[in-house]
Amino acid sequence: MEHSILWLLAAVGIGLLGLSFRFLSPREVWLSFLLNAYISSLTGLIVSGAGMLAYPVRLFPDYTNDSVIFEYLLYPVVSVYVYGTSRRSGWKGIWMQCAAYTGAMTAVEILLERHTDLIEYHTWKWGYSFVSMFVVTLAVRVMAGRLLKENG
């Protein structure tokens, strides 16, 4: 069942990425996407490498201990949508949207941790997920906004 969930999540992520090109320029999409993928892959390596959490069922288990679908597709796609929905927002709106998206991702993570073998907390807590994803999401949103603004 877990592998079916992973493939469904991959299909949703690819679909949402494709859809994002309908309302954002390729430059906006790829900058937000790649910034997030880079940062989340580094933080994911540290957290899973330290044994704080594990992904018992994952794609490419012979090659990585990380959640490839989350760190390289789903979370970066969420950053694209955070950027897209907060382009015309002030700081308060950006913070609130980052918190809302992060809260939704944390809720899904909690459900997956409790009801599947896709993620397993060892010394990790859901609060750590919320704070770390909020910080990364906000940082990516600010960096993407600044880079795109400075470069026209």
Describe the structure in your own words.
The protein has 152 residues and is an all-alpha fold. The chain contains five helices and two strands; from the N terminus they run ααβααβα. It has a two-stranded antiparallel sheet with strand order 1-2. Helix 1 runs parallel beside helix 3 (68-85), helix 2 (26-49) runs antiparallel to helix 5 and helix 3 packs antiparallel against helix 4 (91-115). The mean pLDDT is 94.
Task: Provide a concise account of the structure shown.
The chain contains five helices and two strands; from the N terminus they run H-H-E-H-H-E-H. The protein is mainly α and 152 residues long. The model has no long low-confidence stretch (mean pLDDT 94).
Give me the Rg, rounded: 15 Å
End-to-end Cα distance, whole Å, is 46 Å
How large is the count of helical segments? 5
Mean pLDDT: 94
Shape: globular
Multimerization state: single chain
The major β-sheet equals: 2 strands, antiparallel
Main sheet strand line-up: 1-2
Query: What is the succession of H and E elements?
Result: HHEHHEH
State the helicity in percent bands. Answer: over 70%
Q: Strand pairing plus helix content: what structural class? A: mainly alpha
List low-pLDDT spans: none
Features:
single chain; 152 residues; mainly alpha; two-stranded antiparallel sheet; 73% helix; 3% strand; membrane
SSE layout:
Layout: H1 2-20, H2 26-49, E1 53-54, H3 68-85, H4 91-115, E2 120-121, H5 126-150
Antiparallel strand pairs: 1-2
Helix pairs in contact: 1-3, 2-3, 2-5, 3-4, 4-5
Protein name: CBO0543 family protein
Organism: Geobacillus proteiniphilus
InterPro entries: CBO0543-like (IPR048147)
